[in-house]
Amino acid sequence: MLTRIKSFIFLLAAVMVVAAGCAKPAPSVSVMDTPEYHYKNGLKYLDNDQIDEAMKSFDRAIALDPKSALGYIGKGLAFGKKGDFKAAFSNMSKAGDYDKGIESRIGMIRLYTMQMVAGAGKSDDLLKDAESEFSGARKKDPNSAPLHYYMAMAYKAGLQFEKSSDMFRKVLDLNKEFTSEANVEWAVIQKVQRAAPGTEIGRKIALIDKIDRADVAALFDQEMDLEKLFTKRGPQNYDTTFKAPEGTTTRFSPEQTTKMAPATDIDGHWLKPSIDRVIALQVRGLEPGPTHTFEPDKLISKGEFALMLEDILIKVSGDEKLATKYIGATSPFPDVRNDHYAFSAIMTATSRGFLEADKATGVFNPLAPVSGADALLAIREFKNQLKF
Question: How much is the pLDDT for 103?
């Protein structure tokens, strides 16, 4: 009897699997109600980080065609954006079962790139996996612009800038889709290559579009080696604290008092060691505030970065007159008056080639964010001029 029950359960399960595999497509309600439409619509939602709406579009694509490779590709990308890589790869693998082209392989490359950006795995291993997918796809379509573009993005995420540059250049040579996107990305990679960051932290920050206070502290510490620069060429610090006369029985000891840390909001930050060192060096514009907060995640502007560079230059050169050199001078920038708080610093930074105004308009844009690549180029030029 037990054997017959087990056989019945097994048969029922098999029937359910077959039934699920033979699910009828949902009826289309209009000529636009197609898997392709919902896939493209879902991608637009993903671009705007509207993941839930994107998922609805991809689910509709699958409902209309249960074997829609595009629907599963979209779901894979959506799960990847959410950081659920198990579900992401599961859906992308299913897409591969139905995909007759190379879209699912491109999707795999994009997922490996997402993992590298999220730090979910070793970049070298993930790059090898991406290269394997690229190789398989290229055999089917050697002149696919999307394939080369997303492989370029994978190399970029893996900090393989030379290979990334070659791939972006290939997209431009193909002159099909993704030309404008590749042109922008290629320009960034070229900047990074010119800046030639010497540390892994520098290479990672180089790819950030808008750097924050923690990022710039790390660049000053790791790429400029500011502590060594100040020791070698900076101002001498003298101990001017009060010392009780020898022989007195009662002495005031600052160490015995409760002392608040210079910055109380950086504990646990991955760049804390660099932030601590830069705080100790007292770079203008990177000091903690009166409430002992450093605000590591606050974005810096071009004007603020100019102030920092000017302050470092004054300290290593000993030329205090730099701070007032341009007082009363005519501003060459249509958007910066000569009474702007950072005018002198901006003039110093641009006249020495650390920072640039827009070549077409002459606008400096002091409130604009600073990219990692631009910050690294400024630091490299700074070091070149100091021959350090």
Answer: 97
Query: Averaged in consecutive runs of 10 residues, what is the pLDDT profile of the chain (388 residues)?
Result: 50 46 64 89 96 97 95 98 98 96 98 96 95 98 98 98 98 97 97 94 96 98 95 59 53 58 94 97 95 97 98 94 93 97 97 96 98 97 85
Residues 28 and 6: their CA atoms lie apart, in Å, by: 40
What per-residue confidence (pLDDT) applies to 25?
Answer: 78
Give, in degrees to the nearest 5, the angle at Cα 95 between 92 and 100.
135
Q: How far apart are CA 85 and CA 237, in angstroms?
A: 52
So what's the pLDDT on residue 246?
58
Which tokens go with 79? 């799960």
Query: For every residue of the chain, which 3-state class applies, written as one string?
Result: CHHHHHHHHHHHHHHHHHHHHCCCCCCCCCCCCCHHHHHHHHHHHHHCCCHHHHHHHHHHHHHHCCCCHHHHHHHHHHHHHHCCHHHHHHHHHHHHHHCCCCHHHHHHHHHHHHHHHHCCCCHHHHHHHHHHHHHHHHHHCCCCHHHHHHHHHHHHHCCCHHHHHHHHHHHHHHCECEHHHHHHHHHHHHHHHHHCCCCHHHHHHHCCCCCEHHHHHHHHHHHCCHHHHHHHHCCCCCCCCCCCCCCCCCCCCHHHCCCCCCCCCCCCCCCHHHHHHHHHHCCCCCCCCCCCCCCCCCECEHHHHHHHHHHHHHHHHCCHHHHHCCCCCCCCCCCCCCCCCCHHHHHHHHHCCCCCCCCCCCCCCCCCECCHHHHHHHHHHHHHHHCC
Q: Tell me the C-alpha distance between 200 and 3, whole Å.
A: 63
- Domains delineated in the chain: 26-202 (1.25.40.10), 208-237+262-386 (no CATH)
Other beta carbons less than 10 A from residue 162's beta carbon: 10
